[in-house]
Amino acid sequence: MEFVSPEGLRLDGRRPMEMRQIRAEIGAVSKADGSALFEMGNTKVLAAVYGPREVQNRSQQMSNQALVRCEYTMANFSTGDRMRKPKGDRRSTEISLVIRQTMEECILTHLMPRSQIDIFVQVLQADGGTRSACINAATLALADAGIPMRDIVTSCSAGYLNSTPLLDLNYVEDSAGGPDVTVGFLPKLDKVTLLQMDSKLPVDIFENVMQLAIEGCKAVANYIREVMLESTKKLEYCRGA
Amino acid sequence: MRELQISLNQTQRIRLQRALELLESISSKANSDASVIVADTIPLNYDDGVLKGHGTLDLNGEVVATICGVVERINKLIYVRALRARYKPEVGDIIVGRVTEVAPKRWRLNINYSQDAVLMLSSMNLPDGIQRRQTADDELNMRSIFEENDVICAEVRGFQHDGLHLQARSQKYGKVERGQLLTVSPYLVKRRKQHFHHLEQYGIDLIFGCNGFIRIGERVDPTEDMMIEDQVNKSEQKGSKFEGTFGNQVQERVYTPLETRQNICRTANAIRVLSNLGFIMTVEVIMETVSLSLSLNINVHEMLGSEFCVLTAEKEAERRTSSKKRG
Asked: For residue A5, what are the CA distances in angstroms to A109, A160, A178, A212?
């Protein structure tokens, strides 16, 4: 199948190095300590953070750091064919683990001993790149909850189809079975915290694709920072003296 | 951007926007761009030997914020004041909390902190009012003092090895009943001299917990309480148990007049509106909101609607402009 037309356009009309439109909103769940909605094109993800709060299961309590938990779920209506998926299937368990490890890395857990932080991410619409969208939404929700972090983590995916590196794959491109590189990136520290790839790539091409994904992460980070700053400013001026 | 979760019509939206813009213009004159977000570098203005406080991190010689908030500088100390976050206890804070567990010699309270707080049986005055050692008998009777889900007002005593400890060594602390408990974000409650308020014209009591728990209830007269306390003492001397005396207290005042209940709800809704808009909570602001609703003849249930929300925002903008002019 042809994923990049001779004119250099992709199936949804984007250029190979173009991202989908992103939109973020802070404060979507009123009862949560922090929450955010993140959209990348047609992918739409809701994240809610509860905590730091008392550990529910006493045996898991750690006296020197906080316990971070994450739950990833896909809404039944999020995909094209409506499917009733059992909770805790292999795919969502794996993504929960990935998000948990990525977020745990940047949260300063030692500042909140004997407590637990719960992150719930729910996919409302799935159109490829849910993993990245979930990480971005979770970052925003954690910042909204006032949880201290080393840096913001942002994530973006890139692929390689028709011998062209493509940024931010959508569902059709994702299901083509080509290489799909997901990168989690800390922009301030300039470090990679997450790197996943399906299928294989030669090393020299891989480096290009990964660099493209990192550029995508930086673009997402710029946008997320804008949204955060605007939200913080609004909270401050509404509060008044 | 945090949006209000109520639907506004076109005019209301424009009015609200204008009020918020006014608020922004007032505050931007006061402090210029002190807001930071996670991973922002805080400019040091060529000062060396600064002290890094809460919400900051040292990264290759730069001071970097770890939370979203406002930079505060006090002499050499630089810290970031968090806005939306859980409560951070300070010794001496007056807080309102809810009992989650009755454990041996202690109660555990949910106070919106990262752990549950501990109220020891030995760090509170017993209802009989006598200073004495707590016995095994008292320990067995702990549920007659506070049960699970009771709302309690207490003071932060400090950190011990097993967490945050509270104390309730005064008449004004203890169980609060017959009222509403509201939870707002703790940054909206300012630490002040006075956290207990009695609103005479409405016959209600307000307790501003520093942890963002606000309690509104019917006025309980402290002198009357003392009298009951005395009676309790007398009966105690006759040798009766707590249970009986508590039964008496409950029987004595079970009825709250309708008017008081309406006042409680009105005040509670005023606080909800202010919390939705993210305005700081003081008695003055709350009272102004309540009297605004009364002067416009707005029903209690209509206070949570879009129109009153816009009116409150406009009123607040007006109030801050006028106070700024005076100042």
From this structure: 48, 14, 17, 20
- Per-residue pLDDT tens over the stretch B243-267: 444 445 555 556 788 999 999 999 9
Listed in sequence order, the residues at least 6 apart from A143 whose beta carbon sits closer than 8 Å to its beta carbon are: A34, A149, A152, A228, B37, B38, B67, B68
Here the ipTM equals 0.90
Residue of B nearest to A117 (CA): B114
> Which residues of chain B form CATH 2.40.50.100?
31-82
Residues of A in Cβ contact (< 8 Å) with B59: 188-189
Higher pLDDT, B226 or A157: A157
User: What's the rounded mean pLDDT across residues B236-241?
Assistant: 45
Distance CA A103, CA A186 (A): 11
pLDDT at res. B222: 60
Which of these, B272, B276, B260, B266, lies nearest to B297 by C-alpha position? B266
Residue of B nearest to A56 (CA): B115
Question: Is B91 within 8 Å of chain A by CB?
Answer: no
SS3 B227: helix
The CATH architecture that domain B31-82 belongs to is: Beta Barrel (2.40)
Task: Sort out which chain A residues have CB atoms less than 8 A from B83's CB and list them.
Answer: 146, 232, 235-236, 239
* Beta bridge partner(s), residue A29: none
Q: What is the pLDDT of residue A146?
A: 94
Q: What is the mean pLDDT of chain A?
A: 93
Q: Taking the domain A22-80+87-239, which CATH number applies?
A: 3.30.230.70
Give pLDDT tens digits for A47-98.
999 989 999 999 999 999 999 999 999 999 998 888 777 777 899 999 999 9
Give the B window 189-248 contacts with A, CB below 8 Å.
Answer: none
CATH of domain B86-176: 2.40.50.140
